[in-house]
C-alpha cells in the first residue's frame, strides 16, 4: 500500500495528508484568494463596459481580445516562471496585469476612445495561471507519491469549479450593488493579495530550471493529442454555457440561467472531491479514455431532457449529472500533462493545457451560438454532446497511434522499474 512521505499509512481522509506538509495550507489560502478573481474579471468588464457604452457587442469584443492575448502571453509567462522561479516572475507579472485593469477602468470612467479599451484589456494577459502554479507545487512536493498527487489534482480541479462558480456571482453583486467598477477594483485587490501570500511560501516553490531548457512541452510525445483533447473539452464548456442561456431565454427564464449553469459546476466540484478520495487503478491513459467515455455519455442527457420535455426544470438535474463527468476527466488529463511535460518546464506545460481549454471555450461558444441561431435552442445541445464525442475520438486515436509507434513501452512497468522512474498515477 502506498505510504506518505513520513512513512505512515495513508489516512482515511486523503485530503488531510496534503496539508500536513509545512507551507501547503498557506499557499493554498493564497491560491484560492488569487483564483477567485479569475471568474470575476470578464463578467466585471462586460458589466462595466456595457453599462457605460451601451453595447454588449463592444464589451464582448474587448473580453475576446483579452482571451486571444492571454493565449499568446500565458505560455511565455509560464516559461519565464520555470526558468526564474514563481516568486520572481509571478508578482511583477501580476502587478503589470493589474495596471492594465486599472487603465481599463479609467478609460471607461473618463469615456476614452473605444480602441483604448482593447489596448488596456490586452495588457491584463500577463496574469499568471495561478492554478498551474499551484499544481506545479503539488507535483514538486509529491513527485514520488502518485496517490497524493492524484488527490492534489482533484482538489485543484474542485477549486477551479468553485471559483468559477462563485466568481461571476460575486462580480455581478459588486458591480450592481456598489458601482460598475467595483468588480474590477476588488478583484484586483484579491488577485494581488492572494499572489503575495502564495509566492511568500518559498519552501514549497519548485526550484527554477535555469540552464535546463528541455524539449518544448507541445513537442513532447503524447502532448499533441492531449492538447487537442483539451481543446475539444473546452468546447463542451463554452457551447453548454451559450446554449443553456439561450434555452432559458427562449422559455422566458433567462434570469435563472446562471443558477442552472452553476449546477453543472457544482456537480463537477462534488465529483472532483470524491474522485480525489479514490485510489487510481491502472495507467492514467486508460482512465482518461474511460472518463471521456462517461463524459460523452452524460453530455447527451441535457439534449435528451431538452428534446423530450422542453422544460428547464428537467434540464437542471441533467446538467448536474453531466457536470459530474468533467472533473474526473480534467483531473486525469492534468495528471497526463504532468507526466508528459519535460523536466523543468511544468509551469509551461500546465499553462499550455489551460490555453487549449480557453481556446476550446471560445470555439465552443461560437459553435453553440451558431447552432442556437440557425437551428434552435434545443438543437443547440448537440454542440456540447458532439464536442465530448470528438474529445473521446481524439484520445482513442492518440492512444492507438502511441501503441503503434511504441509497442513495447506499455509493458515496461510490469518488469523491473528503476527507483525514481515511476510515472505519476501508475501506482
Automatic annotation (TrEMBL):
Residues 403-427 are annotated as: Disordered. The keyword Protein transport does not apply. The keyword Lipid metabolism does not apply. It holds the Pfam family MFS_1. Residues 408-417 have a biased composition (Basic and acidic residues). The chain crosses the membrane at residues 26-49, 56-77, 89-108, 185-204, 225-248, 254-276, 288-306, 312-337, 349-372, 378-402. It comes from the Bacteria. InterPro entries: MFS, MFS_trans_sf. Keywords: Membrane, Transmembrane, Transmembrane helix. This is MFS transporter.
Amino acid at each position: 500500500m502506498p505510504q506518505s512521505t513520513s512513512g505512515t499509512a495513508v489516512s482515511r481522509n486523503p485530503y488531510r495528508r496534503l496539508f500536513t506538509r509545512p507551507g501547503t495550507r498557506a499557499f493554498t489560502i493564497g491560491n484560492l484568494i488569487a483564483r477567485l478573481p479569475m471568474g470575476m474579471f470578464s463578467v466585471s468588464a462586460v458589466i462595466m463596459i456595457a453599462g457605460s457604452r451601451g453595447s454588449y457587442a463592444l464589451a464582448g469584443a474587448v473580453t475576446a481580445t483579452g482571451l486571444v492575448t492571454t493565449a499568446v502571453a500565458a505560455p511565455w509567462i509560464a516559461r519565464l516562471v520555470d526558468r526564474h522561479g514563481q516568486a520572481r516572475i509571478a508578482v511583477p507579472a501580476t502587478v503589470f496585469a493589474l495596471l492594465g485593469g486599472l487603465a481599463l477602468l479609467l478609460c471607461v470612467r473618463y469615456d476614452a476612445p473605444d480602441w483604448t479599451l482593447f489596448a488596456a484589456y490586452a495588457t491584463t494577459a500577463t496574469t499568471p495561471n495561478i492554478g498551474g502554479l499551484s499544481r506545479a507545487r503539488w507535483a514538486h512536493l509529491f513527485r514520488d507519491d502518485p496517490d497524493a498527487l492524484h488527490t492534489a489534482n482533484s482538489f485543484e480541479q474542485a477549486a477551479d469549479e468553485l471559483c468559477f462558480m462563485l466568481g461571476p456571482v460575486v462580480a455581478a453583486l459588486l458591480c450592481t450593488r456598489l458601482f460598475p467598477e467595483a468588480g474590477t477594483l476588488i478583484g484586483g485587490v484579491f488577485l494581488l493579495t492572494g499572489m503575495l501570500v502564495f509566492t511568500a511560501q518559498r519552501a514549497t516553490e519548485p526550484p527554477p530550471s535555469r540552464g535546463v531548457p528541455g524539449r518544448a512541452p507541445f513537442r513532447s510525445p503524447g502532448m499533441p493529442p492531449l492538447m487537442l483533447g483539451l481543446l475539444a473539452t473546452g468546447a463542451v464548456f463554452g457551447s453548454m454555457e451559450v446554449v443553456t442561456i439561450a434555452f432559458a431565454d427562449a422559455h422566458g427564464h433567462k434570469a435563472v440561467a446562471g443558477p442552472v449553469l452553476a449546477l453543472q459546476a457544482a456537480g463537477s466540484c462534488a465529483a472532483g472531491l470524491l474522485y480525489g478520495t479514490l485510489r487510481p487503478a491502472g495507467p492514467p491513459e486508460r482512465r482518461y479514455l474511460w472518463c471521456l467515455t462517461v463524459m460523452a455519455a452524460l453530455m447527451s442527457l441535457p439534449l435528451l431532457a431538452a428534446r423530450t420535455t422542453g422544460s428547464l426544470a428537467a434540464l437542471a438535474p441533467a446538467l448536474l449529472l453531466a457536470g459530474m463527468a468533467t472533473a474526473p476527466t480534467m483531473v486525469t488529463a492534468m495528471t497526463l500533462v504532468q507526466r508528459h511535460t519535460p523536466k523543468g518546464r511544468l509551469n509551461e506545460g500546465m499553462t499550455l493545457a489551460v490555453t487549449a481549454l480557453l481556446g476550446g471555450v471560445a470555439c465552443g461558444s461560437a459553435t453553440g451560438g451558431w447552432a442556437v441561431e440557425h437551428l434552435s435552442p434545443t438543437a443547440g445541445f448537440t454542440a456540447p454532446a458532439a464536442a465530448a464525442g470528438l474529445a473521446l475520438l481524439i484520445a482513442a486515436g492518440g492512444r492507438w497511434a502511441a501503441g503503434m509507434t511504441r509497442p513495447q513501452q506499455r509493458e515496461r512497468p510490469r518488469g523491473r522499474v528503476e527507483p525514481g522512474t515511476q510515472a505519476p498515477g501508475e501506482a
